[in-house]
Amino acid sequence: MIQELKASYGHLFEEALLEEISQVGTFKDVPAGYKIIEIGNYIKGMPLLVSGAIKILRDDSDGDELLLYYLEKGDTCSMTMNCCMGQAKSQIKAVAEMDTSLVMVPVIKMEEWAAKYKSWRHFVFESYHKRLNELLQTVDAIAFTKMDERLLSFLEEKSRITNNLSIYNTHQEIAYELHSSRVVISRLLKKLENLGKIELKRNHIQIINLK
Predict the structure, then answer these.
(1) Going by DSSP bridges, is the β-strand pair 53-59/100-106 parallel, antiparallel, or unpaired?
(2) What is the rounded distance in angstroms from the CA atom of residue 36 to the CA atom of residue 84?
(3) Which letter does DSSP use for residue 41 in this model?
(4) Are residues 108 and 178 in the same domain?
(5) HSE-CB for 179 with a 13 A CA cutoff
(6) In this structure, what CATH number is given to the domain that contains residue 175?
(7) SS3 98
């Protein structure tokens, strides 16, 4: 585990902190689609991503999902930290976007490291700041951005996260994550295809040029 931690967090944490994380952390490999955190669960640990990506989602009262942001290598989730520190139930859902490796850090160590390691305090504060900015961007997109622009941004980000020009999501799955309807998403995808930006295949969306 220590080599994976050094590769992802060696530029952030002291050697002593990396050693402690490797001693008390639990290393996990999770497949794409695996639910790491479910809404209503108590969270016992904080994830540190070693590879892959996780999408953070929120459900509304009807059970529809809204994509909030992605976590990537070297990231953690500030909402998870809030739940851990406050011993509260999770208000978000975390799902592996692709095959992902992570280290779960036990709650009991989080406050201890905040007092002991400057790099850990800085990492936590930076994580809060980054996630807050991403949440504000999501709110702004919902409030002020047209759905066709949101869909374009979604496809760009999905392609960047997966490092793949093929998007293996159904129209319904995209509609869920953008809090829209399948009919609207299908119509906008067809429009993008007519513009030569994408090609709609039988089981995936092929990106041609989104610029």
Answers:
(1) unpaired
(2) 15
(3) P
(4) no
(5) 17
(6) 1.10.10.10
(7) coil
Task: Order across the sheet with 100-106: list the strands.
Answer: 26-30, 100-106, 45-51
Contact 154, 184 (CB under 8 A): no
- Please report, for the domain that includes residue 136, its CATH number: 2.60.120.10
For the four alpha carbons of 128, 84, 157 and 188, in that order, the dihedral sign comes to negative
Question: pLDDT per residue over 82-124, tens digit each?
Answer: 665 556 678 888 999 999 999 998 878 887 898 899 999 999 8
Helix axes 182-194, 147-162, angle to 10 degrees: 80
Range of the domain at 165: 146-207
- List the one residue out of 159, 157, 160, 150 whose CA is nearest residue 188: 150
Cα→Cα distances 34→4, 6, 70, 82, Å = 21, 25, 15, 22
Structure tokens that stand for 179 in this block: 């809090």
**CA–CA distance, 49 with 105 (Å, rounded to integer):** 11
Q: What single-letter DSSP state applies at residue 43?
A: P
Q: Which of residues 120, 143, 166 is at a domain's end?
A: 143
Q: What is the pLDDT of residues 46-77, one digit of tens each?
A: 889 999 999 988 887 666 778 888 999 998 87
pTM value is 0.78
Looking at the structure, tell me whether residues 196 and 95 fall in a common domain.
no
Question: Are 130 and 179 in a shared domain?
Answer: no
Q: Tokens 């799955």 correspond to what residue?
A: 173
Nearest to 13 by CA among 52, 48, 51: 48
What does the block give as tokens for 162?
A: 């997966």
CA gap 135, 137 in Å, rounded? 5
